[in-house]
Amino acid sequence: QVQLVESGGGLVQTGGSLTLSCSASGGIFRPNTMAWYRQVPGKQRDLVATITSGGTSNYADSVKGRFTISRENAKNLVYLRMNGLKPEDTAVYYCGFGRMGFSSPDYWGQGTQVTVSS
Q: How far apart are CA 50 and CA 68, in angstroms?
């Protein structure tokens, strides 16, 4: 089992920035992929960004150029730096952990709310 705990969500104005953090613990295996997803009520959970334990990252088109995913393997941490936030970025953000090339994470955090005011 892998446990994931997110932090760093909050309320920010349009154009502002936030950094989310996710700490992984438990049965960490490598190689792996860590990811951020987001979900608004009534809609599916959407992929925001992924990063492999080797450092390869990918982003949803909607956040390219604004968000940056990074990780510290030694500390089992993954971050999501969000710049130029828009009201449509408002969602619950979830951290995910799983095997390389997963279609969906094997493990999820509890989520952290990000609200962008207009």
A: 10
